[in-house]
Amino acid sequence: MNAFAALVGRELRLAWRHGADTLAAVLFFFVAGLLFPLAIGPAPEVLGRIAPGIVWVCALLAALLPLDRLFGADLEDGALDQILLCGLPTAGIALAKAASHWLVTGLPLLLAAAPLAIMLRLPPAALPALLAGLLPGTLLLSLLGTLGAAIVLGARRGGVLLPLLVLPLTVPVLIFGVAAADAAATGLSARPHLLLLAAYLAAALPLCPIAAGAALRQE
């Protein structure tokens, strides 16, 4: 646990020194979301109906931005070899990377989702369900993104392959997250969709770090 905490602390310190990466992800999230009213018009009823999908798609795309540097920066400067020798299992290293990605990128996106949803005229009844779905959803994006980043590490054109690998895995997250907010907006229960998200997270939490750790051992 000490090695795990030390690795997470290292990642947070590096993120603090390069705070522009987090700012860029949040700004991308807002700018991409605000393009939709310009494209489809400012009609409140139209925006309110598609607001959950806009927020989720923008959060997914913004979470992908820092993934190519998740392991790539350590590989370039040789730090990855030292991390692999720190005594922490490779699955633990991958989990620490996923946790740091969520703290640096997923959590700011979760906090920024409410203002964007309000600007997009999301019905007030759907806002709690949207945020409740984004909590496990952003965690899943970090886990799946870490898995993808480990698999394409060292590959030629890995930055191109990474979204192609990660995006199909996030389709269930997108479907259940949007469905939860839509159900709440129409007066139905969002609980079944949130439980499915939680079940996906429960499966991904052990499996993604193990698979990512296996990919790291091949480097």
Number of helices: 10
Radius of gyration, CA atoms, in whole angstroms: 18 Å
Question: Low-confidence runs (pLDDT<50, min 5 residues)?
Answer: none
The general outline is elongated
SSE topology string = HHHHHHHHHH
Largest sheet: none
Question: How much helicity do the residues have?
Answer: over 70%
Number of strands: 0
Oligomerization category of the chains in this entry:
single chain
Give an account of the 3D structure.
It is built from ten helices and no strands. The chain has helices at residues 2-17, 19-40, 44-64, 72-77, 79-84, 90-119, 127-151, 158-169, 171-185, 191-217. Helix 1 packs across helix 6 (90-119) and helix 7 (127-151) runs antiparallel to helix 9 (171-185). The protein is elongated, with a radius of gyration of 18 Å. The two termini are 24 Å apart. 42% of the residues are buried.
